[in-house]
Amino acid sequence: MNANPGHSPQGPSTGTPPPSFPPGLGAALTGLARHAIGHKLGLPGRQPEFDPAVAAVMTAPGAAFVTLTLGGDLRGCIGSLLAHRPLVEDVASNAVAAAFRDPRFPALSPAEYEPLHIEVSVLSQPAPLAFTSQADALAKLRPGVDGVIFEAGWARSTFLPQVWEELPQPEVFMAHLKRKAGLPANYWGPDVELSLYTVTAFHEDR
């Protein structure tokens, strides 16, 4: 699933990496994403190497979104909502997809590679949200903290927590989420399901 998470700086949704995330993981993840994109472009580059603590996290199952920006503008964003493969594979695959297969943008050109900024967001396991009405659901959302998965029948969409920077009001956030799923902004029905997750976001330091 692809999403437009915006391009906000480190904020409440990112926080401090928990103890299970060793120092150096952010540089490893963003470096891996850049290497995967460069390799796809046919550019020279060495395969990244990781210290044992970082490698242990990278080889464990993980889910991540890779967000690309150019000059502060979104250039691509693709990710996984559920951990279904090693984090190292998930980040590399999603980086290439964000650069070359996001349907909202043309494929990345070699000229765009160097000025590209990369952000990797590692997701927690999504958890279903219990609610009795749309008003109840909106009241339970935590702006700046929660990533939200919206589902209604065949329709499905998600926004990363970073989107709260652009859409800080829960009502507006939800309306855009429904539009992204291909539904009217005022849609609500018994088939609506919501799940929440958080992210730890790592920004490329170049």
Task: Outline the structure in words.
The protein has 206 residues and is α+β, with helices and mostly antiparallel strands. The chain folds into two domains: 25-124, Hypothetical protein ph0010, domain 1 (Glycoprotein, Type 4 Pilin, 2-Layer Sandwich), CATH 3.30.700; 127-198, Dna Ligase, domain 1, CATH 3.30.1490. Helix content is 27%, strand content 22%. The chain contains five helices and eight strands. The protein has helices at residues 25-40, 52-59, 87-100, 134-140, 170-180, and strands spanning 64-70, 73-79, 117-123, 127-128, 147-152, 155-159, 192-197, 199-203. The strands form two sheets. The protein has a four-stranded antiparallel β-sheet with strand order 2-1-3-8, with helices on one face. It has a four-stranded antiparallel β-sheet with strand order 4-7-5-6, with helices on one face. The two termini are 28 Å apart.
